Amino acid sequence: MQQKKSSKFYLIFFLFLSLILTNLLFVNCGGSRTASNSNTNNGDSLQNISSLDGTWVQDFCSSQGGQSNKNVQILNQIDNKSITLNVDVLAYFNSNCGGSGNLVGSSSYGTIVFSSTAIDGVGNYFRGTWTSPTSTTKIIYALKNSTTLCIIGDIEPTVFPSSASITDQVNLMVSQNICYKKI
Fold first, then answer.
1. 19 — phi, psi (to 5°)?
2. Please, which pLDDT band fits residue 47 given cuts at 50, 70 and 90?
3. Residue 118 — very low, low, confident or very high, per pLDDT cuts 50/70/90?
4. DSSP characters over 64-106
5. Residue 45 CA to chain centroid, in angstroms?
6. In 10 A of CB 64, how many CB atoms?
7. Which of 97, 109, 112, 166 would suit a FRET pair with 41, their CA atoms being 20 to 30 Å apart?
8. pTM of the prediction?
């Protein structure tokens, strides 16, 4: 039983890690835009963090050997600037993520403390630090609309200095089906 639980943990961990690495690979892809009107908020009270709360299923379907799966993120707001992150996998007994999937079992992946938010005409962007069980990483949660969430790995100093650069990355990620939908 311990081996099965350990294997599940590593499967979920490597799926989530692959998402972050994919985002870092595409960090400089996409077009360029002029700066848009945006409203940035730094400090103790961040705007609309409650909109992240909930269960999110990734659009991307991974398949192998007649089975397929989608990554799931379960976000729970702790206070006005932080959330807990639990990760799960939605497994399907077909090769195209069709029909109803079964959740494998969620694992805790730490906490994200947001340091700033930006809102423009395209979306809400939450910059923060993700403290996982094994490391600390800069991350951006980009909420394109109330049902589309893109997770962007970042570094310090940021490679996404403006709302426009985040929007370009989000548009690229949406076109590649690697963002999440709220369920």
1. -60, -50
2. low
3. confident
4. ETTEEEEEEEEEEEEETTEEEEEEEEEEESSSS--S--EE---
5. 21
6. 8
7. 109
8. 0.77
Question: Under a CB-based contact definition with an 8 Å cutoff, are residues 154 and 28 in contact?
Answer: no
Q: What confidence tier does 32 reach under pLDDT thresholds 50, 70, 90?
A: very low
Confirm if 56 and 71 have CB atoms less than 8 A apart. Answer: no
Sequence-ordered strand ranges (E) for the chain: 38-42, 54-58, 62-64, 67-79, 82-92, 102-103, 107-120, 124-131, 136-145, 148-154, 180-182
Residue for token pair 């195209």 = 96
> How many beta carbons lie within 10 A of that of residue 111, not counting itself?
16
- Per residue in 121-171, pLDDT (tens digit) is 778 999 999 999 999 999 999 999 889 999 999 998 899 999 899 999 999
Contacting residues for 130 by C-beta, under 8 A, at least 6 apart? 85, 110, 111, 112, 136, 137, 138, 139
Torsion 114-11-25-60 (CA) sign? negative
